[in-house]
Amino acid sequence: MTAAIAVDGLARAFGPVQAVDGVSFQVEPGEVFGLLGPNGAGKTTLIRLLAGVLLPTAGSARVLGLDPTREGPAVRQRCGVLTEMPAVYERLSARQNLWFAAEVFDVPVPEVTRRVDHLLGEFGLGERADEPVGGFSKGMKQRLAIARALVHNPEVLFLDEPTAGLDPVASRQVHDLVDTIREEGRTVVLCTHRLVEAEALCDRVGVLSRGRLAALGTVRELGERLLAASPVTLTFLEPPGEAVVRAIAGVRGVSIEGVLGRSIEIAAPEDESIAGAIQVAVATGGRLIAAGRREHTLEEVYFALQGDVT
Amino acid sequence: MNWRTVRAIAKKDLLEVRQNRIAIWSILGVSALFSVGIPLLIGLLPFDTGPSGGDLGPLEALTALMPAAHQDLPIGARIVVLMLGYFLAPLFLMIPLMVTAIVGAESFVGERERRTLEGLLYIPADDLDLYAGKVVAGAVPAILATALNFSAYAVVVNLVSAPLVGGFWFPTPTALVLAAWIGPAIALLGVSGSVLVSTRVETFLEANQLTGMLSMLIVAMVVGQGTGLLVLSLPVLLLFGIVIYAVDIVLVRLGAALFSRDRLMARA
Questions:
Q1: Where are the alpha helices (DSSP H) in A214-296?
Q2: B12 with A89: Cβ contact below 8 A
Q3: Do the Cβ atoms of B194 and B101 come closer than 8 Å?
């Protein structure tokens, strides 16, 4: 299957500042791909390069098989972009904003009214569709901006910090919208520095740092690659006695990380050591009911990476 | 060129201007002053309606511009005809410049100030369509405003001066050429200047300062004619128009050639 987005050694400098520096990755069709990184890492510049509104100083990219540098209008016709600021026209109404977008994205004239009305309804803006957008809350403006990005049914959607500055309820609405967009089979590139958001929404993530791609993969892959094995939690029917704890601590390759109530957390990089710990726990009278290795969180992965690159 | 895109950009800019009350009242206020207030004031001054003929002193040479029928009018009537028909008529060329300056605020620099530029640059239009949309957005209302103001000026001038002059006499051939030939040229000059400048400066104020300098051209015409240094005869006006249109073409081509999404986005 052809990648929806293929980036190869892409770079862009602004004077002496290398905003994007030799970045390479691919995004598969229908994937929600997260671009993570602190402010100034190069996430927004990368989106601008992929949409063909900035020109690269080196490298190349293909979006839906098109070259953004030479075929910018064609790329933008098939992509939707939610900018970091909603960038809606505040003196115009929500309906006028969507009409303008439908016109410039060449939505067939007979379809414009139906499409605009549908989006106004779907994004909960119908009741205030004809009021100037300047009076809208930040969440409503963001919903309007997402609706605008979808007005021409794009195959790829770039979302740049879609929940920046939104309250939890509005953020949740945006997350639900991304889930809906994913279900529709569109490809999404999500720029964010909200790790929880990326973890919840993204199939894979790429972590940018100072313009370079510092890591790429699923959260699990990155955790396995970058971090020591995560602790294993042994859970008992009742709080384990001292004999049980001592017996487990005596198993080769196992160290006790902590004992809390009915649980013992152990560090055991090898599966063989975990099996040994379970065996001695049961043999010394521990009534074991569960054992499992906790997955690394994206936050742990991210901070491990930041430690590596700083 | 994708005219649907050009039209949509122009329509969007004009809708934004329409919602800007300060801009609308500025346009209406200045229009009312130039097209109604000043001619009304001059027409209602208590000029002499005595016998025909008489010497206008330093202005006598300018009476050669007037149609033969007006050259024998009383001094007061001739002063009114000279002032309303020749000295002040070029002033309404300020209207297209003012409109283009205001609509120019909706152009690229205004979009940057209102943080909407990035969204605009993501539309699928190519650079030429985007630039053309902004030029059309400024040119159409400027030309329309010129035509409306000229019509209003003509009505007021005829109404207030008819008793003195003995009938409706405006527009004169030179005033007609000013409105129909020079007016659109000046409108295009203001638009091409303001859009070009707007792509290269950081703030709306900078853009307005630079485009405002164009109004000095109009002031120079009025002063030049008033002091006898410049006589805006028909040949002079036709030639002047050709020069302005040539400058317009150069500015539009230069603006389109220099327009760069990449540069605008890099500064967005």
A1: 219-226, 242-249, 271-283
A2: yes
A3: yes
Which residue reads 């009312």 in tokens?
B32
Structural domains in chain B (count): 1
pLDDT in tens, A108-140: 999 999 999 999 998 889 999 999 999 999 889
3-state secondary structure of B126: coil
Q: How many residues does chain A have?
A: 310
Please judge whether A100 and B115 are an interchain contact, meaning their C-beta atoms are less than 8 angstroms apart.
no
CA B80 to chain centre: 23
Indicate the residue type of B160. Answer: V
The pLDDT tens digits for B28-66 are 998 899 889 988 888 877 666 566 656 666 666 667 777
Residues A58 and B148: their CA atoms lie apart, in Å, by 53
Whole-model pTM?
0.80
Q: What would the DSSP string read from start to end of A94-146?
A: HHHHHHHHHHHTT--HHHHHHHHHHHHHHTT-GGGTTSBGGGS-HHHHHHHHH
In chain B, the residue whose alpha carbon lies closest to the alpha carbon of A97 is B12
CA of A232 vs chain B CAs: smallest distance (Å): 48
Shortest distance between the Cα of A254 and any Cα of chain B, in A, equals 55
Q: Which residue of A has its CA nearest to B128?
A: A73
Does B15 contact chain A (CB < 8 Å)? yes
Residues 6+ apart with CB under 8 A from A280: A247, A248, A250, A251
Is A85 in contact with B266 (Cβ distance < 8 A)? no
Tokens 């004809």 correspond to: A130
Q: Which domain holds residue B210?
A: 3-267
Nearest to B122 among A81, A89, A96 (CB): A81
